[in-house]
């Protein structure tokens, strides 16, 4: 009997402060972790590790990278002491090489905040082995969708493919506006509506060309490394037409914190709310 594929996830990690200021996103991720079938291992893709070609972390024991500055001291004291997943790293690199990508193992990188911050909510006991795959920010959405397709077999092997970013990510506006009331910028809704509509329709050509077609795309993403991981999750799904959108609003009025689950086993909003 063929094992059911785990859903692939895209979650917004927002600012590093999410680790100590959960807002609406922390409880959502915690409930999502309780709802999902327990994975054997986790492969995470974050926009904060970018390399020209794919690299997969091969550490036997993960290390927590505090790749940010100017935040409260308590943030730098947080650790996520999960085991690494060297065999998963080898398997991941092999799948990518089989798809024609020159993937290599890396024994230096650990888990950056785009990985360990959401993982602290999803699996707070750090008891699931995890490794990280780098992003190729110079490549576009279609490339990352193909990466997801190459990784799809992992979901049937008990591996949770977790991608992390920010559904909108204009840091210039965060710093410029100092939006203390966190009133959401009106243009975000237009971008979110366009993107979710075209994902639901699986209009891949429009999605791959979102920077030219989506309203306010270049304002929502002056650079698109925080959105590229969603294409990996979409490509990895066993049935990308089955999608669940979790709307957890925005932080600072401009960083949308949406999350998505893709695949035949994707939990519904009601499932997660009941968890």
Automatic annotation (TrEMBL):
One Pfam annotation reads: LigB
As one GO molecular function, the record gives: zinc ion binding
Asked if the Swiss-Prot or TrEMBL record annotates the protein with the keyword Oxidoreductase, the reply is: yes
**Which co-factors does it depend on?**
Zn(2+)
Tell me which UniProt keywords the record has, alphabetically. Dioxygenase, Metal-binding, Oxidoreductase, Zinc
Q: Does the keyword Ligase apply?
A: no
Q: Which residues form the Extradiol ring-cleavage dioxygenase class III enzyme subunit B domain?
A: 38-245
From what superkingdom does this record's organism come?
Bacteria
Family membership, please give it.
Belongs to the DODA-type extradiol aromatic ring-opening dioxygenase family.
The name under which this protein is listed is Aromatic ring-opening dioxygenase LigB
Could you read off the lineage of the organism from its UniProt record?
Bacteria, Pseudomonadati, Pseudomonadota, Betaproteobacteria, Burkholderiales
């Amino acid at each position: 009997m063929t094992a059911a594929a785990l859903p692939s996830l895209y979650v917004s990690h927002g600012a590093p402060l999410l680790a100590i200021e959960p807002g609406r996103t922390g409880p959502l991720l915690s409930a999502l972790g309780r709802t999902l079938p327990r994975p054997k291992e986790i492969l995470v893709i974050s926009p904060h590790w970018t390399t020209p070609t794919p690299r997969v972390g091969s550490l036997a024991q993960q290390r927590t990278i505090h790749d940010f500055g100017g935040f409260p001291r308590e943030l730098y004291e947080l650790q996520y002491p999960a085991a690494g997943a060297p065999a998963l790293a080898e398997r991941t690199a092999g799948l990518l090489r089989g798809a024609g990508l020159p993937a290599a193992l890396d024994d230096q990188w650990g888990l950056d905040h785009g990985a360990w911050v959401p993982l602290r909510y999803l699996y707070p006991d750090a008891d699931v082995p995890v490794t990280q795959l780098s992003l190729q920010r110079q490549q576009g959405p279609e490339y990352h969708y193909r990466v997801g397709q190459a990784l799809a077999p992992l979901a049937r092997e008990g591996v949770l493919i977790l991608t992390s970013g920010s559904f909108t990510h204009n840091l210039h506006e965060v710093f410029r506006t100092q939006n203390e009331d966190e009133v959401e910028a009106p243009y975000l809704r237009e971008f979110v509506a366009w993107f979710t509509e075209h994902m639901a329709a699986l209009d891949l050509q429009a999605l791959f060309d979102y920077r030219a077609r989506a309203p306010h795309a270049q304002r929502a993403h002056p650079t698109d490394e925080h959105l590229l991981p969603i294409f990996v999750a979409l490509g990895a799904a066993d049935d990308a037409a089955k999608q669940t959108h979790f709307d957890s609003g925005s932080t600072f009025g401009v960083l949308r914190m949406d999350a998505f689950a893709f695949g035949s086993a994707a939990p519904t909003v009601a499932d997660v709310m009941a968890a």
